[in-house]
Structure to design on (131 residues):
């Protein structure tokens, strides 16, 4: 599999994301449902704490990747849905470093939304990975 970052400008690299990623020769594509800050039974955790919710959602996303014999470095698209976009941007430096440490440099969209599936959930991570 060949993977090539496409960056006509470099400003997104400051957020550890690319404008585009070209993939050729991939054998597998994994589309992941949105991962949230929930325990194994679906109960929401960390009400009101966006950073803690991001960390648990990221951990849940990595668990799903592991189940498919994939890793965060194989994520090519990560959509971030949040009920608090300004709060996410204020914490972005710390949160983005978590992804970077795991080798994830995807294309990404941050979407501010009115609500997610439960009133306590503030963030949801939806990913596509290729291998």
């Amino acid at each position: 599999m060949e993977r090539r970052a496409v960056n006509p400008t470099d400003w997104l690299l400051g957020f550890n994301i690319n404008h585009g990623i070209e993939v050729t020769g991939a054998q597998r594509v994994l589309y992941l449902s949105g991962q949230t800050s929930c325990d194994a039974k679906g109960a929401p955790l960390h009400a009101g704490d966006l950073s803690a919710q991001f960390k648990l959602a990221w951990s849940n996303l990595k668990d799903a990747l592991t189940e498919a014999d994939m890793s965060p470095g194989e994520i090519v698209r990560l959509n971030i849905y949040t009920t608090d976009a300004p709060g996410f941007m204020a914490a972005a430096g710390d949160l983005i470093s978590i992804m970077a440490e795991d080798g994830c440099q995807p294309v990404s969209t941050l979407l501010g939304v009115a609500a997610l599936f439960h009133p306590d959930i503030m963030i949801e991570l939806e990913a596509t990975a290729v291998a």
Summary: The radius of gyration is 14 Å.
